[in-house]
Design goal:
Oligomer: single chain
Strand content: 15-25%
Strand order of the largest sheet: 2-6-8-9
Number of strands: 9
Helix content: under 10%
Number of helices: 0
Structural class: mainly beta
Length: 110
Amino acid sequence: HNSLSEVDINAFSQIRNATIIRLNNNPEIKFFNSNTQEKNKKINNNMFSSLENLEELYLNDCQLEDIEPGSFKNLKKLKKIDLFNNKLANLKNRTFEGLDNLDELDLKNN
């Protein structure tokens, strides 16, 4: 396990060239919205929007509870998303909208 406890939802807004993001194995992680002061275990729909070159996203073992629809829509090059071992009980329509190159989506143990 890692020890990330809080990530601002705008933390990735200036990153353009990353191809892999690993936030996995952070069960205590919460996402912080500096505008509303809200902290939660939800992927915000603007959180990864600037990561246009992202190919792999690892969010497994983070105790995530929700993903806003359209959270990954700008990630046109994304090939793999690991979301296993979270607490995702319900996924809404359009959660994975726009992921035309997605080859692998792991949702087991949610």
